[in-house]
Amino acid sequence: MTVSTSPSYAVGIDFGGTSIKPALVQGKNVLTHGTTINPQGRSAEDTLSAMEEGIRALCRELPSLVPVGIGLPGFVDSVQGIVHGLSNVAGWTEVPVSKILSERLKVPVILENDANAMAYGEWLYGAAAQTRNAVCITLGTGVGGALILEGQLYRGSQLAAGELGHTSIDMNGEPGPYGNKGCLEAYVGNHPISTRALKAYATAGIQAPTPECTPLDLATAAHKGCAVAHNIWETIGNELGAAFANVVWILNPDIIVVGGGVAKAGDLLFPHIERSLRSRTSSVINSQLRIVPAALGNDAGAVGCAALALASVR
Amino acid sequence: MTVSTSPSYAVGIDFGGTSIKPALVQGKNVLTHGTTINPQGRSAEDTLSAMEEGIRALCRELPSLVPVGIGLPGFVDSVQGIVHGLSNVAGWTEVPVSKILSERLKVPVILENDANAMAYGEWLYGAAAQTRNAVCITLGTGVGGALILEGQLYRGSQLAAGELGHTSIDMNGEPGPYGNKGCLEAYVGNHPISTRALKAYATAGIQAPTPECTPLDLATAAHKGCAVAHNIWETIGNELGAAFANVVWILNPDIIVVGGGVAKAGDLLFPHIERSLRSRTSSVINSQLRIVPAALGNDAGAVGCAALALASVR
């Protein structure tokens, strides 16, 4: 394997369900975004070829190709560099992505679960910089999470750790996808939020702000003073605080970083998370703990992957 | 500090609320138990002197004194070797135990939280041997826990990690000591078990096996075929399984080791824990996970402390 002549550069690829976004990264900065690739409706082989081309294009002005890190949504063996399966993309069963791309490109290619990649980015350069123990959660359609413990990405025995979205806030509550009753994602995922909001508006006899009532719509409504929307954010904050309290009792972290679309509710949400969490934990733990929004935004995944790729060759 | 001439020996001290038990340990074996010391009603200074004497007595037939590890129930700074405070013993506020005893004995003296010490013993020589990621829980009057992650004792940012007893199984449930509603200990600690059992017998119109209805009494009753007692063990197993599921989603460990008095219920309890836990987690995680009783019994703490003391001088 050729050692890169530009070790501070790397390609970070955020592999999403509908768009694959390659980026040339240096430290915390995305220098150039490559052409976005849509993985839907094409074979893994086809997509890999498009990715190879995209990586070559990004490195065109560098003396040589640079290490590549790819963050993917699904079950990924980051040690062997194999994709076992992806959440929303068909045809990616047992694909040895690292081997295929590194043989073609002659540079190291590492894979990582997307939540882990984002967490690593936030820990190295973002909201969790300078911390030892960080818990990261991403709130969206799904609720994902990742852990940095003692300054290392902690992946667990089957590389399946950090699944905060599947922890339970009520052992007899709403079932999640694995029969796990009280599953956090069944309360604070995008769809349950909308469903519950539409119900709350109906109960209150008030018209919902939009027919979809997305978290963004609910934030807009709350900013305009809608009490129903405010109550929903309080409920979500209370539930997130309860889930975080469990993580905090188990891991006693320095920081909880909250990212994803729902986190953009900002001040509508975070004070309720804080109140709930601190009412459920001890002062020894509370005195040092910070709960903060993610800092790197949409670039966190690419930046994290690129950093992991560079770390793998050091 | 003198380097011990017998590095494979160490003194392990299990410091309990009513008895301090020093032991001379070699590997997983307790060679000799020293005289038990009662810390109640005496000053910390007095108790430290008695401990010093006990350590010297245990090492009398060795060429020299050996490293000492002490496991204590409470808030302990294992890095600085300071006891901030003990759960059930007065007079132990901000006591620099390591400094005091190591200056007198001229050997390294390390401190550890008792749950951590037991977990380390179980991980090195007991039920969790040969695992990478182990979660340990102790069921008694209190419900404590400890984590071994990637082959290291994980203590958390304020050395307060692993408190499984304070995690919640119901965000609106029974309050725990920190206002943490649904606190596991408020369901499966010795006292709540007895209280709930007495209520269940009263509701069933059946006389309780004893007026106290301790977990041991309930195990005896269940072994005799009492359906009320069987139901209680099923409820406890279901609750423990729910709490363990949260830990498993977060940490994806290899093993959960269950120790303490309540764990002695054995087959009355473990199948219910298994069923509950596996119904709440995914097959990827379940396929490898083991839930087992602790193996070292009452010696786990002393063995773990002794091993930590030896590890500190390597």
What would your notes on this structure say?
The structure is a homodimer of 314-residue chains. Chain A is of the alpha/beta class and 314 residues long. Chain A folds into two domains: 124 residues, Nucleotidyltransferase, domain 5 (2-Layer Sandwich); 165 residues, ATPase, nucleotide binding domain (Nucleotidyltransferase, domain 5, 2-Layer Sandwich). Helix content of chain A is 37%, strand content 20%. Chain A has ten helices and twelve strands. In chain A, the strands form three sheets. Chain A has a five-stranded mixed beta sheet, sandwiched between helices. The first copy, chain A, has a five-stranded mixed beta sheet with strand order 10-9-8-11-12, with helices on both faces. In chain A, β8 and β9 form a beta hairpin. In chain A, α5 packs antiparallel against α7 and α6 crosses α7. Chain A is globular and about 60 Å long. The relative contact order of chain A is 0.16.
